[in-house]
Design a protein that fits this description.
Elements lengths: L1 E5 L7 H17 L3 E5 L2 H8 L7 E4 L16 H6 L4 E4 L2 H4 L5 H13 L3 E6 L9 H14 L4 H6 L1 E4 L15 H18 L10 E4 L7 H8 L3 E4 L6 H10 L2
Parallel strand pairs: 1-2, 1-8, 2-3, 3-4, 4-5, 5-6, 6-7, 7-8
Helix pairs in contact: 1-10, 5-6, 6-8, 8-9
This protein binds 2-phosphoglycolic acid.
């Protein structure tokens, strides 16, 4: 399983960050899962440089520009230089701050140009009975991947994160059978865009209120490849419990 810990802006204290990294390294040694930590940019620079452990790192977002006079931007190149392996692209919290399908396309191409594997976040705002949310998700996938080469399309990791579940508790999260359906649907859409119409190698992970109370049920039924975990990833004990639940 691929487990991505998205610290968002929750972890601001250096000692807390160090404790979480130490816990993650220890977990990575004994777990079969691949652990990816996505700290804030300053902590990414601190912990990813020279990292020799089994833990790998993601940058939480990258700039839509390749660099230059852009105060405050974190470019794919800078993230790669400090040791990031992955880049989260199109998180709903970034989309809410202005990321469009066009800027997401830009970000994906910068990620690839710098050797970062993108984790593309998609997900609907709400569910409806007519299935409009399916069209919404399809549109997000098609628009993000269309500009990429066939080889790049096959390398994007998809993180399905319904916005209505993000930041909630396990009992308000997606139900396992709904996740199963959604993973199948996403793979069907992906297959239309991939070489050989084969999406079986694409990693599709789930995010949105993943907690110790639901991770095992979600993992068990849905054939999901892993999880993108926000609030439950920022406490060492909870994060350990989550990783152990699915090991
Ligand atoms: P959550 O966030 O686990 O706190 O719901 C997931 C995410 O936004 O990536």
């Amino acid at each position: 399983m691929l487990i991505i810990a998205n610290w968002k802006a929750y972890v601001e204290d250096l000692d807390r960050a160090k404790e979480l990294i130490a816990t993650s390294k220890k977990l990575a040694r004994s777990s079969e899962s691949v652990l990816v930590i996505a700290p804030s940019a300053p902590f990414l620079g601190l912990f990813a440089v020279g990292n020799k452990s089994k833990v790998t790192f993601a940058v939480q977002d990258i700039s839509a520009t390749p660099g230059g006079a852009k105060t405050g931007e974190v470019t794919a190149s800078a993230a790669s230089a400090v040791g990031a392996t992955y880049a989260i692209v199109g998180h709903s919290e970034r989309r809410a701050l202005g990321d469009t399908n066009e800027t997401i396309t830009e970000k994906l191409s910068h990620a690839f140009a710098q050797g970062l594997t993108p984790i593309l976040c998609i997900g609907e705002h709400k569910r409806d009975t007519e299935g409009w949310y399916l069209n919404f998700v399809r549109e997000q996938i098609v628009s993000a991947l269309s500009a990429l080469t066939p080889r790049e399309r096959a390398r994007v990791i998809i993180a399905y994160e319904p916005i209505w579940a993000i930041g909630k508790s396990a009992d308000q999260s997606i139900q396992p059978h709904d996740l199963t359906e959604m993973i199948l649907y996403i793979r069907k859409v992906l297959a239309e865009l991939l070489p050989g119409k084969n999406a079986s190698h694409t990693q599709v992970v789930y995010g949105g209120a993943v907690e110790t109370g639901n991770i095992r049920a979600l993992a068990g039924e849905s054939r999901v490849d892993g999880f993108l975990i926000g609030h439950a990833s920022i406490d060492p004990k909870t994060f350990s419990a989550l990783v152990q639940e699915i090991s």
